[in-house]
Amino acid sequence: MRVLITGGSGFVGQRLCQRLSEAGHELLVVSRDPEAVRSRLPTGTDIRHSVLDFVESPPQAIVNLAGESIAAKRWSDEQKTRLIDSRVNVTRDLVILCEQLSQRGDPVPQVMVSGSAMGYYGDQGDREVSEETPPHDEFAHRLCKRWEDAAREAEEFGTRVALLRIGLVLDADGGSLQKMLPPFKLGLGGRFGSGRQSMPWIHREDLVRAILFLLERDDLEGPFNGSAPHPVTNAEFARALAGQLGRPAFFPVPAIVLETALGEMSRLLLTGADMRPKRLLEAGFTFRFETLEAALADILG
Predict the structure, then answer these.
(1) Phi, psi dihedrals of residue 290, rounded to the nearest 5°
(2) pLDDT tens, position by position, for the chain (301 residues)?
(3) What does each C-alpha distance from 1 to 58, 109, 119, 181, 257 come to in angstroms?
Protein backbone atom coordinates (compact mmCIF):
# COMPACT_ATOMS: atom_id res chain seq x y z
CA MET A 1 0.00 0.00 0.00
CA ARG A 2 1.21 3.52 -0.80
CA VAL A 3 1.02 5.52 2.43
CA LEU A 4 1.46 9.30 2.59
CA ILE A 5 2.73 10.53 5.97
CA THR A 6 2.85 14.18 7.03
CA GLY A 7 5.14 14.68 10.01
CA GLY A 8 6.95 11.54 8.93
CA SER A 9 10.34 12.76 10.12
CA GLY A 10 9.11 13.53 13.65
CA PHE A 11 9.27 11.58 16.91
CA VAL A 12 6.25 9.40 16.13
CA GLY A 13 6.49 9.61 12.35
CA GLN A 14 9.97 8.11 12.13
CA ARG A 15 8.96 5.02 14.09
CA LEU A 16 5.75 4.71 12.06
CA CYS A 17 7.70 4.90 8.80
CA GLN A 18 10.05 2.20 10.06
CA ARG A 19 7.15 -0.13 10.88
CA LEU A 20 5.36 0.57 7.59
CA SER A 21 8.55 -0.11 5.63
CA GLU A 22 9.15 -3.37 7.51
CA ALA A 23 5.61 -4.43 6.56
CA GLY A 24 6.36 -3.82 2.87
CA HIS A 25 4.42 -0.59 2.34
CA GLU A 26 5.59 2.18 0.02
CA LEU A 27 6.29 5.44 1.86
CA LEU A 28 5.50 8.98 0.72
CA VAL A 29 6.65 11.70 3.12
CA VAL A 30 6.19 15.47 3.09
CA SER A 31 9.08 17.63 4.31
CA ARG A 32 10.17 21.23 3.80
CA ASP A 33 13.76 19.95 3.54
CA PRO A 34 13.81 16.49 1.93
CA GLU A 35 17.59 16.11 1.97
CA ALA A 36 17.85 16.99 5.65
CA VAL A 37 15.42 14.23 6.71
CA ARG A 38 16.38 11.54 4.19
CA SER A 39 18.84 9.85 6.55
CA ARG A 40 16.11 9.52 9.23
CA LEU A 41 13.72 7.62 6.97
CA PRO A 42 13.79 4.14 5.40
CA THR A 43 15.68 3.72 2.14
CA GLY A 44 13.45 4.34 -0.86
CA THR A 45 11.08 6.76 0.87
CA ASP A 46 9.65 9.24 -1.65
CA ILE A 47 10.11 12.64 0.03
CA ARG A 48 8.60 15.80 -1.49
CA HIS A 49 8.08 19.39 -0.41
CA SER A 50 4.29 19.50 -0.56
CA VAL A 51 1.27 17.24 -0.19
CA LEU A 52 0.08 18.35 -3.62
CA ASP A 53 3.35 17.16 -5.20
CA PHE A 54 1.89 13.65 -4.88
CA VAL A 55 -1.13 14.26 -7.11
CA GLU A 56 0.55 12.35 -9.96
CA SER A 57 1.50 9.41 -7.73
CA PRO A 58 -1.45 9.31 -5.36
CA PRO A 59 -1.44 7.50 -2.02
CA GLN A 60 -3.88 4.78 -1.02
CA ALA A 61 -3.76 5.84 2.63
CA ILE A 62 -2.78 8.92 4.62
CA VAL A 63 -1.42 9.43 8.13
CA ASN A 64 -1.53 13.08 9.16
CA LEU A 65 0.86 13.91 12.00
CA ALA A 66 1.98 17.40 10.95
CA GLY A 67 2.04 20.34 13.32
CA GLU A 68 4.38 22.65 15.20
CA SER A 69 5.09 21.57 18.78
CA ILE A 70 2.38 22.98 21.01
CA ALA A 71 4.85 23.46 23.87
CA ALA A 72 7.72 25.00 21.92
CA LYS A 73 6.94 28.65 22.69
CA ARG A 74 4.80 30.79 24.96
CA TRP A 75 1.24 31.15 23.63
CA SER A 76 1.15 34.67 22.25
CA ASP A 77 -1.69 35.45 19.85
CA GLU A 78 0.82 35.10 17.01
CA GLN A 79 2.02 31.72 18.27
CA LYS A 80 -1.56 30.47 18.66
CA THR A 81 -2.17 31.32 15.02
CA ARG A 82 0.99 29.45 13.99
CA LEU A 83 -0.06 26.40 16.00
CA ILE A 84 -3.45 26.30 14.31
CA ASP A 85 -2.14 27.04 10.82
CA SER A 86 0.61 24.40 11.03
CA ARG A 87 -2.07 21.75 11.54
CA VAL A 88 -5.05 23.04 9.60
CA ASN A 89 -3.22 24.16 6.45
CA VAL A 90 -1.50 20.81 5.89
CA THR A 91 -4.75 18.98 6.61
CA ARG A 92 -6.61 21.14 4.10
CA ASP A 93 -3.93 20.32 1.51
CA LEU A 94 -4.64 16.63 2.11
CA VAL A 95 -8.34 17.28 1.49
CA ILE A 96 -7.49 19.23 -1.68
CA LEU A 97 -5.42 16.25 -2.82
CA CYS A 98 -8.47 14.01 -2.33
CA GLU A 99 -10.64 16.53 -4.18
CA GLN A 100 -8.27 16.79 -7.15
CA LEU A 101 -8.01 13.01 -7.44
CA SER A 102 -11.81 12.70 -7.28
CA GLN A 103 -12.29 15.34 -9.98
CA ARG A 104 -9.83 13.54 -12.25
CA GLY A 105 -11.62 10.25 -11.76
CA ASP A 106 -8.61 8.72 -9.98
CA PRO A 107 -8.99 6.59 -6.84
CA VAL A 108 -8.93 8.72 -3.70
CA PRO A 109 -7.10 7.54 -0.56
CA GLN A 110 -9.14 4.86 1.16
CA VAL A 111 -8.37 6.12 4.66
CA MET A 112 -6.91 9.04 6.56
CA VAL A 113 -5.73 8.59 10.14
CA SER A 114 -5.43 12.17 11.33
CA GLY A 115 -3.69 13.17 14.52
CA SER A 116 -5.40 15.17 17.19
CA ALA A 117 -4.65 15.44 20.92
CA MET A 118 -6.00 14.94 24.40
CA GLY A 119 -6.31 18.72 24.47
CA TYR A 120 -9.54 18.25 22.51
CA TYR A 121 -11.32 17.69 25.83
CA GLY A 122 -9.79 20.63 27.69
CA ASP A 123 -9.66 20.51 31.47
CA GLN A 124 -11.95 17.72 32.69
CA GLY A 125 -11.03 17.60 36.36
CA ASP A 126 -11.39 14.13 37.89
CA ARG A 127 -14.08 12.65 35.67
CA GLU A 128 -13.37 9.71 33.36
CA VAL A 129 -13.25 10.77 29.72
CA SER A 130 -14.35 8.75 26.71
CA GLU A 131 -14.78 9.80 23.09
CA GLU A 132 -18.34 10.92 23.92
CA THR A 133 -17.36 13.31 26.74
CA PRO A 134 -18.30 16.94 25.99
CA PRO A 135 -15.20 19.16 25.75
CA HIS A 136 -14.33 22.11 27.96
CA ASP A 137 -13.99 25.17 25.73
CA GLU A 138 -10.46 26.56 25.85
CA PHE A 139 -7.63 27.13 23.37
CA ALA A 140 -6.38 23.53 23.23
CA HIS A 141 -9.90 22.32 22.47
CA ARG A 142 -10.49 24.93 19.78
CA LEU A 143 -7.17 24.06 18.12
CA CYS A 144 -7.95 20.32 18.06
CA LYS A 145 -11.52 20.88 16.88
CA ARG A 146 -10.41 22.95 13.91
CA TRP A 147 -7.81 20.30 13.08
CA GLU A 148 -10.38 17.51 13.27
CA ASP A 149 -13.01 19.46 11.32
CA ALA A 150 -10.50 20.05 8.53
CA ALA A 151 -9.70 16.32 8.35
CA ARG A 152 -13.37 15.32 8.25
CA GLU A 153 -13.80 17.25 5.00
CA ALA A 154 -12.05 14.33 3.24
CA GLU A 155 -15.13 12.20 3.95
CA GLU A 156 -16.94 14.13 1.21
CA PHE A 157 -14.72 12.40 -1.36
CA GLY A 158 -15.16 8.90 0.03
CA THR A 159 -12.11 8.74 2.31
CA ARG A 160 -12.64 7.05 5.68
CA VAL A 161 -11.38 9.39 8.41
CA ALA A 162 -10.20 8.21 11.84
CA LEU A 163 -9.22 10.91 14.36
CA LEU A 164 -6.64 9.88 16.94
CA ARG A 165 -6.63 12.02 20.10
CA ILE A 166 -3.13 11.36 21.36
CA GLY A 167 -1.94 11.47 24.95
CA LEU A 168 1.61 12.00 26.24
CA VAL A 169 3.82 9.83 23.99
CA LEU A 170 6.61 8.05 25.86
CA ASP A 171 9.95 6.80 24.59
CA ALA A 172 13.54 7.55 25.49
CA ASP A 173 14.79 9.41 22.43
CA GLY A 174 12.27 12.21 22.09
CA GLY A 175 9.04 13.79 23.22
CA SER A 176 8.27 14.99 26.73
CA LEU A 177 10.04 12.12 28.51
CA GLN A 178 13.39 13.06 27.00
CA LYS A 179 12.99 16.57 28.48
CA MET A 180 11.97 15.19 31.88
CA LEU A 181 14.82 12.74 32.27
CA PRO A 182 17.75 15.09 33.11
CA PRO A 183 16.23 16.63 36.28
CA PHE A 184 14.75 13.32 37.41
CA LYS A 185 18.11 11.55 36.95
CA LEU A 186 19.64 14.21 39.21
CA GLY A 187 16.95 13.63 41.84
CA LEU A 188 15.42 17.04 41.14
CA GLY A 189 12.10 15.86 39.70
CA GLY A 190 8.65 16.25 41.19
CA ARG A 191 5.00 16.96 40.55
CA PHE A 192 3.64 20.05 38.82
CA GLY A 193 1.28 22.16 40.94
CA SER A 194 -1.04 19.99 43.02
CA GLY A 195 -0.10 16.87 41.05
CA ARG A 196 -3.75 15.80 40.97
CA GLN A 197 -4.22 16.54 37.27
CA SER A 198 -4.55 13.50 34.98
CA MET A 199 -1.78 12.58 32.53
CA PRO A 200 -3.03 10.26 29.78
CA TRP A 201 0.04 8.61 28.28
CA ILE A 202 0.94 5.99 25.67
CA HIS A 203 4.12 4.12 24.79
CA ARG A 204 5.29 5.15 21.32
CA GLU A 205 5.20 1.53 20.13
CA ASP A 206 1.53 1.20 21.13
CA LEU A 207 0.70 4.49 19.41
CA VAL A 208 2.29 3.29 16.17
CA ARG A 209 0.41 -0.02 16.50
CA ALA A 210 -2.84 1.90 17.02
CA ILE A 211 -2.24 3.93 13.86
CA LEU A 212 -1.61 0.74 11.87
CA PHE A 213 -4.75 -0.80 13.42
CA LEU A 214 -6.87 2.15 12.28
CA LEU A 215 -5.32 2.06 8.81
CA GLU A 216 -6.17 -1.60 8.36
CA ARG A 217 -9.68 -1.78 9.89
CA ASP A 218 -12.03 -0.41 7.24
CA ASP A 219 -14.96 -0.39 9.69
CA LEU A 220 -13.40 2.19 12.04
CA GLU A 221 -13.95 5.92 11.68
CA GLY A 222 -14.46 9.01 13.83
CA PRO A 223 -12.63 9.85 17.08
CA PHE A 224 -10.43 7.44 19.03
CA ASN A 225 -8.55 8.19 22.23
CA GLY A 226 -4.88 7.33 21.71
CA SER A 227 -3.80 6.63 25.28
CA ALA A 228 -3.13 3.61 27.49
CA PRO A 229 -6.02 2.11 29.51
CA HIS A 230 -4.57 3.25 32.85
CA PRO A 231 -3.85 6.99 32.97
CA VAL A 232 -2.15 8.39 36.05
CA THR A 233 -2.07 11.69 37.89
CA ASN A 234 0.91 13.97 37.50
CA ALA A 235 2.09 13.08 41.01
CA GLU A 236 1.83 9.36 40.24
CA PHE A 237 3.79 9.89 37.03
CA ALA A 238 6.55 11.71 38.91
CA ARG A 239 6.79 8.94 41.54
CA ALA A 240 6.84 6.20 38.90
CA LEU A 241 9.53 7.88 36.83
CA ALA A 242 11.67 8.64 39.88
CA GLY A 243 11.21 5.09 41.13
CA GLN A 244 12.28 3.59 37.81
CA LEU A 245 15.43 5.74 37.94
CA GLY A 246 16.07 4.98 41.62
CA ARG A 247 15.82 8.65 42.55
CA PRO A 248 13.59 10.70 44.88
CA ALA A 249 10.84 13.02 43.59
CA PHE A 250 10.97 15.69 46.27
CA PHE A 251 11.01 18.87 44.19
CA PRO A 252 7.51 19.96 43.17
CA VAL A 253 7.13 22.91 40.84
CA PRO A 254 4.51 25.31 42.28
CA ALA A 255 1.68 26.28 39.97
CA ILE A 256 2.49 29.98 40.32
CA VAL A 257 6.01 29.38 38.98
CA LEU A 258 4.66 27.64 35.87
CA GLU A 259 1.95 30.25 35.35
CA THR A 260 4.47 33.06 35.61
CA ALA A 261 6.99 31.40 33.30
CA LEU A 262 4.60 29.97 30.70
CA GLY A 263 1.42 32.02 30.88
CA GLU A 264 -1.61 30.29 29.36
CA MET A 265 0.57 27.44 28.11
CA SER A 266 0.98 26.34 31.74
CA ARG A 267 -2.49 24.75 31.41
CA LEU A 268 -0.80 21.92 29.49
CA LEU A 269 0.98 21.00 32.72
CA LEU A 270 -1.55 22.02 35.37
CA THR A 271 -4.79 20.61 33.93
CA GLY A 272 -5.71 17.32 32.32
CA ALA A 273 -8.29 14.74 31.35
CA ASP A 274 -8.69 11.18 32.66
CA MET A 275 -8.81 9.96 29.05
CA ARG A 276 -9.57 6.27 28.33
CA PRO A 277 -9.26 4.44 24.99
CA LYS A 278 -12.85 3.17 25.05
CA ARG A 279 -13.38 2.84 21.29
CA LEU A 280 -9.98 1.24 20.58
CA LEU A 281 -10.62 -1.39 23.26
CA GLU A 282 -14.15 -2.04 21.99
CA ALA A 283 -12.70 -2.55 18.49
CA GLY A 284 -10.34 -5.24 19.81
CA PHE A 285 -7.06 -3.34 20.01
CA THR A 286 -4.68 -4.73 22.63
CA PHE A 287 -2.02 -2.65 24.35
CA ARG A 288 1.42 -4.11 24.95
CA PHE A 289 2.03 -1.56 27.69
CA GLU A 290 -1.13 -1.07 29.75
CA THR A 291 0.52 0.36 32.86
CA LEU A 292 2.99 3.19 33.26
CA GLU A 293 5.35 0.97 35.24
CA ALA A 294 5.54 -1.53 32.37
CA ALA A 295 6.11 1.22 29.82
CA LEU A 296 8.87 2.91 31.82
CA ALA A 297 10.55 -0.43 32.54
CA ASP A 298 10.65 -1.15 28.81
CA ILE A 299 11.92 2.32 27.91
CA LEU A 300 14.43 2.84 30.73
CA GLY A 301 15.13 -0.62 32.11
Answers:
(1) -85, -25
(2) 999 999 999 999 999 999 999 999 999 999 989 999 999 999 999 999 999 999 998 999 999 998 888 877 888 999 999 999 999 999 999 999 999 999 999 999 999 999 999 999 999 998 999 999 999 999 999 999 999 999 999 999 999 999 999 999 999 988 889 989 999 999 999 999 999 999 999 999 999 999 999 999 999 999 999 999 999 999 999 999 999 999 998 899 988 988 888 888 888 888 999 999 999 999 999 999 999 999 999 999 8
(3) 11, 10, 31, 38, 49
